[in-house]
């Protein structure tokens, strides 16, 4: 039925639930699993105004990328520990919903399993969740957990 499942993963409780559901489905269908962690790119102006690390400001994109990489690797380790030795994890920067849909299309995933609410910004509460936007933009089926 499904050959390749994409799991957008941000480390939130709902993304953990989505990962667990994706593993159940992958076991039933013998599908491969891929984790995608997306972080928002910050402009130089935003980075210069950031108070994230006042003693060591660094580049905010580097900080966000490093954190996203840790999150993705944690999710991948969870998959490997559960017996999915061929699990893959990727980190991308960009607008979250569009990046997920674009990645799924470019890598021929035939299902996206996503948590109903993740670590999104306050903007997400006002404009709609990432999961809602993914369901509207995706050409492949989306399971919202």
Quick recap:
The protein has helices at residues 13-29, 44-49, 60-81, 96-106, 122-127, 130-137, and strands at 4-8, 32-39, 88-93, 111-114, 142-144. The protein is of the alpha/beta class and 145 residues long.
Feature tags:
18% strand, 5 strands, 6 helices, alpha/beta, 5-stranded parallel β-sheet, 145 residues, Rossmann fold
Question: How are the SSEs placed, and which strands pair?
Answer:
Layout: E1 4-8, H1 13-29, E2 32-39, H2 44-49, H3 60-81, E3 88-93, H4 96-106, E4 111-114, H5 122-127, H6 130-137, E5 142-144
Parallel strand pairs: 1-2, 1-4, 2-3, 4-5
Helix pairs in contact: 4-6
Output the helix-strand order: EHEHHEHEHHE
Q: Briefly, what CATH class?
A: Alpha Beta
Shape: globular
Average pLDDT confidence is 86
**What percent strand?**
15-25%
User: Could you tell me the number of beta strands?
Assistant: 5
Report the radius of gyration as a whole number of Å. 15 Å
Largest sheet composition: 5 strands, parallel
Distance between the termini: 19 Å
Q: Which consecutive residue ranges, at least 5 long each, have pLDDT under 50?
A: 121-127
- Provide the spatial order of strands within the biggest beta sheet: 3-2-1-4-5
CATH superfamily: HUPs
CATH topology value = Rossmann fold
What structural class do helix, strand and pairing data support?
alpha/beta
Helix content: 40-55%
